Amino acid sequence: MQLNPTSDHINKINNANKTKIKPIYILIGFVIISGIVAFIIGGIMLGKDRSHISPSEDERSQIDVNSIPDNPTEWQSYGIESIGMEIKLPENLSNKGEWKEQIIPGEKGSILCFSNKTSQGANCTSEILIIGGSSTDFSEGRGGMFTDLQGFRKENGKYFIKTTGGNEFELISSKNKKLINTNGVEIIKILGETNGTGTPQEGYIGAIVNTKNSKYPGISVQLKLSEGISEYEFDQILESLKFTN
What we know:
By secondary structure, the chain is of the alpha+beta class. It is built from three helices and 13 strands. It starts with 6 loop residues before the first helix and ends with a strand.
């Protein structure tokens, strides 16, 4: 005897099939969405990892000036005419007195000084920012200072700091960074204690800069860190340095 299924039987069978198929589609959809989310998270983490990769030693150090509230493009510009260089200072520095270039005579030669204080003796002085460099023939009856330095050179992967009397010493410190700013100025940023006279005053952060001037072949920059002035602003000051001739 052959039984013919009624429409009710057919509907029940179809509904049963749909009930079995539905969880499969949900599972497939879940797998696809999970894959997309994992791909996005992986891309973000890879980007973070790459952002921490240190640049090579001689790679240019570029700073996004637009990321700083007090945009350095609006900072006050100053000229250091003796070496054909320009520097910019933030308002909380530029408003602290008259920043100017001075030539300070020694027993022989001279010191180039840019600060907001009148020099005392053969020293470049300031309580905040000091930029100085000695002439190649400079000598004075005192010990060497950070602002007497005359730039640096590199040989066989080592850095040698030039100082008075045609002398130089090897920079021995794991806490320094060689960089070239976007204006092509060669700089060694001093991040920790070094040997010789290659360390700025206590409480200051420093840098040694090569110039294009034969009389003053290098200058030193040292900035006193305070609540209003941080290493970040110091980096911007170094970034602003450029040759004007």
